[in-house]
Amino acid sequence: MSRVSPRPEIAALPPSVHGGLDHGELARLTIHPDDVLDFSVNRNPFGPPPSVRAVWEGVSLERYPDRECLALRSALAERHGCGMAQVWVGNGAAELIWLLALTYLSTGDPMLVVTPTFGEYAAAGRVMGARSKMFVARQRDDFYPDLDALVIRMKKLRPRLTFLCNPNNPTGVYLEREVVKALLAANPSGLLVLDEAYAPFVENGWDSTPLLRSGRLVALRSMTKDYALAGLRLGYLLAAEGIVGAVRRVQPPWSVNVIAQAAGLAALGNDAYLQDTLAQTRAAAVELARELAALGLQVRPSATHFFLVKAGDAAATRSKLLRRGILVRDCTSFGLPAFVRIAARRPEENQRLVAAWRELM
Ligand SMILES: Cc1ncc(COP(=O)(O)O)c(C=O)c1O
Q1: pLDDT band at 1 (very low <50, low <70, confident <90, very high)
Q2: Are strands 161-165 and 191-195 parallel, antiparallel or unpaired?
Q3: Is 119 helix (H, G, I), strand (E, B) or coil?
Q4: Is the CB–ligand 1 distance for residue 92 below 6 Å?
Q5: 290-333 pLDDT, tens digit each
Q6: Are residues 130 and 63 in the same domain?
Q7: Is 345 exposed, middle or buried (0-12, 13-18, 19+ CB in 10 A)?
Q8: Rg (CA), the chain
């Protein structure tokens, strides 16, 4: 029997690791998913806006979704003050990361990822056979990238795509506008993909849309974090028309389902809920960080509602907390085996995390 092998890039691909419940693991531990408080995913802990729940009724399930997401793109364009032709919607920001790799990377093309960061950028590059390079922001610099060195690296490597997550997952480091402008200027021959999945969680963040004029910035947004629509899958990118025109060609048809499109529209219409819950989440994160530090733990500063905590052995800490019904993100897959990442939840839920951790000490 002859065997057909997958492409070598696929065979060499490590499994992707993410936060969230591992249902197989919970079944082995005989823990019911409903009994776990999940601090390992970075979403709005107050859930989706109430208006989103109502959309099911009005949605026609027998029709194909609008492949161009016209209504949602029009609302997003209005929100960001740009043209509809500069907006494209995906089945989560994750799909758009993969589509960008598919659109812009061929075998051997240079690409750069500022790490430690979200693993999908490197995975997508590997699948395309790109020459994927990492620029490491060091722990001793509080995970803030050495900008002079990064600019030099970009000038030398001239990556087709540079992935920069801002604020960064998992470190919470947030780069200012001038820094991103300098990075954009450093490499006229490639695109800078600025993943702003967590930007809405930053207090007084800056607006990257004016930088779209450069023609080389792709801003990625997720609606699964701020609007808590992880189960529905919804994200979008903002970029120059030419970039949008290229990415849309490689997207599988009907990728964004009818419910996700309707939910996205309903969510955008409920700004007060978003602003209110994000403010509460930020306040809860500050308080949680303070209480964990008071236990003697080393808590890293963060511009957003999730932060790194030094745990010694992250895998062991995760599993001890899980037995107490608390899930945190072991950061070993980010190359940080001494850290766990915690995303603040509601104040009363955060108290359960503090109590469980106190028991470990
Ligand atoms: C930085 C970053 N970008 C993108 C994503 C994917 O977001 P989505 O759920 O919209 O696919 C994640 C998910 O964890 C993330 O952390």
Answers
A1: low
A2: parallel
A3: coil
A4: yes
A5: 999 999 999 999 999 999 999 999 999 999 999 999 999 999 99
A6: yes
A7: buried
A8: 20
Assess if residue 1 is contained within a domain.
Answer: no
Residue with tokens 């990064």: 150
Q: What pLDDT, on the 0 to 100 scale, is given for residue 11?
A: 86
- 8 domain-assigned: no
Give the model's confidence band at 12: pLDDT under 50 very low, under 70 low, under 90 confident, else very high.
Answer: confident
Question: Residues 300, 214: one domain?
Answer: no
Ligand 1 atom closest to residue 95's alpha carbon, by position in its atom list: 11
| Mean per-residue pLDDT, 57-61 | 87
Domain containing 24 — which CATH number?
Answer: 3.90.1150.10
Q: How far is the CA of 228 from the centre of ligand 1 (A)?
A: 12
Nearest atom in ligand 1 to 19's CA = 14
Shared domain for 140 and 282, answered yes or no, is no
C-alpha of residue 139 to centroid of ligand 1, in Å: 23
Report the separation in Å between the CA atom of 198 and the middle of ligand 1, taken as the mean of its atom positions: 9
229 CA from centroid of ligand 1 (Å) = 11
Is there a single domain that holds both residue 83 and residue 219?
yes
Structure tokens at 240: 């120059």
Q: Would the CB of 196 count as within 6 Å of ligand 1?
A: no
Closest residue by CA, ligand 1 atom 7 = 93
CB atoms inside a 10 Å sphere around CB 152: 12
Task: Please state at what angle helix 120-127 crosses helix 93-104, rounded to 10 degrees.
Answer: 30
Residue 2 is assigned to a structural domain of this protein:
no
For 310, the token pair is 């030094």
Residue having the nearest C-alpha atom to atom 3 of ligand 1:
197
User: How many Å lie between the centroid of ligand 1 and the Cα of residue 358?
Assistant: 31
Range of the domain at 83: 50-268
Yes or no: say if 48 and 228 are a contact pair by the CB < 8 Å rule: yes
Number of H helices, E strands in the chain: 14, 12
Q: Hey, is 311 helix, strand or coil?
A: coil
**Alpha-carbon span 94 to 22, nearest angstrom:** 19
